[in-house]
Write a structure and sequence with these properties.
The chain has 14 helices and 22 strands. Helix 2 packs antiparallel against helix 5. It has 473 residues and is an alpha/beta fold. It has a seven-stranded mixed beta sheet, with helices on both faces. The protein folds into two domains: 2-247 and 449-471, Aldehyde Dehydrogenase, Chain A, domain 1, CATH 3.40.605.10; 251-439, Aldehyde Dehydrogenase, Chain A, domain 2 (3-Layer(aba) Sandwich), CATH 3.40.309. It binds succinic acid (SIN).
Length: 473
Amino acid sequence: MPIGGRWVPASGGGTITVANPATEAPLAQVPAATIEDGLAALDAACRAQEAWAATPARERADILDRTYHSIRNRRDEFAALITAEMGKPLTEAQAEVDYGAGFFRWFAESANRSHIDGQYGVEPGGQYRFAVSKRPVGPSLLITPWNFPLAMGARKIAPALAAGCTTILKPAEATPLTSLLLAKVMEEAGLPAGVLNVITTNNSRGVIAAVMADPRLRKISFTGSTQVGSALLAQAAPNVLNTSMELGGNAPLIVFDDADLDQAVDGAMVAKLRNGGQSCVGANRIYVQDGIAAEFTRRFTKRMATTRVGDGTDPATELGPLIDSKQVATVSALVQDALAKGATCLTGGTTPNRPGSFYPATVLTNIPDNADIRTEEIFGPVAAIYTFTTEDEVIAEANNTPYGLASYVFTQNLAKGLRVADAIDAGMTGINRGVVSNPAAPFGGTKQSGLSREGGTEGLHAYQETKYTGIQL
Ligand code: SIN
């Protein structure tokens, strides 16, 4: 793992085995970083901070731009690695490579503008001058999940570097290989030693706690569950760390009677099955208006039932394995709970008897109020369909959750779409679209779905402090 510009083993000599979720076969060994390694990475980031912040923005942008082109040139290599360690089908892995590379392009462009993002003027009383400028927050700890091994790192590294922050990346234990390849690519793109340090560890809790307790760390950016995010916020409090939290979701997808049915089915398929449903923006609750419910459910179920499940390397595969057997057990338990309480399963619903962490595309209806699946994040290829009658009723249902990340509305009445989007308490709404993620857009949630935004202009500001200087001439 790269720490301070050197590729080093774990100080304790330990390793972690990374396995392919489709075959359960081992893929590689990576260092099992210790607390000492975590602190060495922080030392390296702190040593590099001053020089990196002083590096002209255009030079920082050039490195990000070269990284963008290099990822694009090595698209197949990145995609194959993502599929191998995470399981998603190759076509989805290629889409992730494009999405991830896009953050380097967007923030290369942003870095070129970051230092002109200030103000100079006279204060309202006319007595003296104001100068307001931006500066980097400082050394930042970036903690990424396993579901998008490239894109989630890219969404944090690119803005941090653009703003002039040095970084310590801690990828998920299950999927560290893509992050290591990215670090190699960035080194080749000319990134100075210590600006990006990567720690691969199976002692996440211990390493993160030690790094966060050190007052030299100035920021933590985390993507993962609300439960872990909430614990990290408590750990961030003593040193008043700057935090960005991209946490859990419970996205409603609403289909009105006046929706274009083909568009709604296509949108629901991608919002449900992208990444095998293992996404915090995945459609967790599908609400269909009475008049269209039977036809939507028939067409959607047909598509789900014919979704080809298999190893992501097979070009015919549309749904790969889940990340591991624990995830399969979690998803299966939600389905079994709903069925035991009276839900109807229209397709799927049983764990296949084969090696690998597979679960079929599943559709549930008639889900009772007391089923756990109504309130919990599914994180798997299971569609829960509910019906509704009025706009007010579905808005109340959509907002009846402590989460507020993504939401989706399908209607051909744009005024209605915008009205409902405004009424839903969520950070993001797609109107007639099942995917809204874009490097140029602010990604993030309200309520217990998180704090701050990633991507867009906001994504850069998350790594900047505002400095105000009052000047008496
Ligand atoms: C996530 O599931 O955490 C991110 C999904 C995305 O960026 O589209």
